[in-house]
Structures are given as C-alpha cells and as structure tokens.
Specification:
mainly beta, 5% helix, 7-stranded mixed β-sheet
Length: 122
C-alpha cells in the first residue's frame, strides 16, 4: 500500500525557516527519486525540488539557494529545509516519487498525501 505522509508545516514570519518531512512507503522510496511539490490557492501544483536515490538534487529557480532537499534512505524519509521564507512560498507542500522524462521530472504516483500547509506572513 502506497503511503506518503507529509509533516512539518506551520505559520512563520517572512525570513523564517521550516523543515518539512515526508515519510514514504519503503518500496516506493527505495527505487525512486523523490520530489517536493507545492500548490498555492488558485494555482497549479508546481515542482520545487527533486533528489535522486544517489542524492543528486535539482531546484526550481524560485527556491534555489533558499530550499534544500535531502533524504534519509534508512528512514524512507525525504526532507525539505525552507530558509529565508517569503510570503509567496505560502502553499500546501506535497511529496511524491518522481521520474525523469527528457529534462522534465514527472510525478510517478496518481496518489497524493494530505500535504502540509506552509503559511508565511509578511
């Protein structure tokens, strides 16, 4: 059974930090790259960071230099460290397994967890 459980969101002032966690099913986690997505109200879900099984990372331009993705393979968990947060980072954050098609990362699973809300006040 697939499970993706996100946690760690909250309300923070601009410039603050949060650390998000995503606990994934062992089978999914062990064989796939993982990604963090976010969806702001009225907007489409967007990919913000990916990490391969070997630890190679990639970031959307909007978060580069501020967010850091990492994974703990022993715990089947992927993390997203959010620093220097801005009000425009306000969104629900989700994780999913991802795969590469050409130069684009795509979500592997149709299933999405409940996400974790990040709200940044100005």
């Amino acid at each position: 059974q697939v499970q993706l459980v996100e946690s760690g969101g909250g309300l923070v002032q601009a410039g603050g930090s949060l650390r998000l966690s995503c606990a994934a099913s062992g089978r999914i986690f062990s064989i796939n790259a993982m990604g963090w997505y976010r969806q702001a109200p009225g907007k489409q879900r967007e990919l913000v960071a990916t990490i391969t099984r070997g630890g190679i990372t990639n970031y959307a331009d909007s978060v580069k230099g501020r967010f850091t993705i990492s994974r703990d393979n022993a715990k089947n968990t992927v993390y997203l460290q959010l620093n220097s947060l801005k009000p425009e980072d306000t969104a629900v954050y989700f994780c999913n397994a991802v795969y590469l098609v050409g130069s684009s990362w795509l979500a592997l699973l149709d299933y999405w967890g409940q996400g974790t809300q990040v709200t940044v006040s100005s």
